[in-house]
Specification:
The protein is α+β, with helices and mostly antiparallel strands. It contains two helices and four strands. Strands 1-2-3-4 form a four-stranded antiparallel sheet, with helices on one face. A hairpin with a 2-residue loop joins strand 1 and strand 2. The N terminus is likely disordered.
Length: about 110
C-alpha cells in the first residue's frame, strides 16, 4: 500500500471513529424535547376546543432512537357532561436531516 492510500485510509478511520458518536447523538430524540413538542401539540389541540380547560404531558417513553410516545391530557369542563380528564397517546418522531420533531401519530381520546 502506497503512502497516499495509507493517509486516505487513516483519514477515513479517524472520520468513522470521531464522526459516528456525533451522528448518533444528532439522530436521537431526547425525552425532554419530545415532552416539549407534545405539550405544544396538547396546547394547540386545546386552543381549538371550547370545553378544554388545561393541557399538558403526563409521561413519555422511548419507542426507538428517533421515536418517543407521550401521553397528553386535557382537563375538560362541559355543562352537559361535567368535569373530566381525557388522555391521548401522541407519537413524535425526529427527522434527522432537519431536526424537526413532528407528531407522527395520535391515539384516540380516553376519557
Amino acid at each position: 500500500m502506497n503512502r497516499v492510500a495509507r493517509i486516505a485510509l487513516a483519514g477515513l478511520l479517524v472520520t468513522a471513529l470521531v464522526g459516528t458518536p456525533a451522528l448518533a447523538a444528532a439522530g436521537r430524540l431526547s425525552i425532554p424535547r419530545a415532552r416539549e413538542r407534545a405539550e405544544a401539540f396538547a396546547e394547540s389541540t386545546c386552543a381549538h376546543d371550547k370545553s378544554c380547560f388545561d393541557s399538558g404531558v403526563m409521561e413519555c417513553r422511548r419507542q426507538g432512537d428517533r421515536v418517543v410516545l407521550c401521553r397528553i391530557y386535557d382537563h375538560r369542563r362541559t355543562e352537559k357532561q361535567g368535569d373530566f380528564r381525557c388522555t391521548r397517546l401522541v407519537r413524535l418522531g425526529l427527522q434527522p436531516r432537519t431536526h424537526r420533531v413532528p407528531v407522527t401519530g395520535v391515539g384516540g381520546w380516553d376519557c
